[in-house]
Write a structure and sequence with these properties.
6 helices; Rossmann fold; 7 strands; 149 residues; alpha/beta
Amino acid sequence: MKTLCIAPCGDRKIWKKIPDAGPQKARNVYTGPYAGKCIQYAEKFYPSSWCILSAKYGFLFPDDVIQGPYNVTFKRKNTNPITIDELLIQADEKGLEGYEKIIVLGGREYSNMVEKILYGKNIYVPLKGLAMGQSISKLKGAITKGTPL
């Protein structure tokens, strides 16, 4: 079964630590503990089939380049997050429909978005209902043991 792992973006980005970092690959942008651990998990268990769901840019493959800082969130519509219609187009253009199983590591906003876009797929949300600290702990444990969630 062809599996895609989707990691969330995050509020903390490389430009907060290094303002003149310039354009960066998506895999290097999100520096917060939760997004960082999700990316580490995705890279370990799904090295050739993972992406990040960004509230601004949509589906980003690890080597997609982001030009600079931004602050957009699915939680606040006034930040103008990417729309469902735009995400549906991206999913088609990026071949995401070709995956049968989708693992979503983000919270409720992310899993709800993915369910709307990739409906009919086997969607698994292993961190569902957990607080951020619990999620990070669960991800760390999986990475350390070498056992996917």
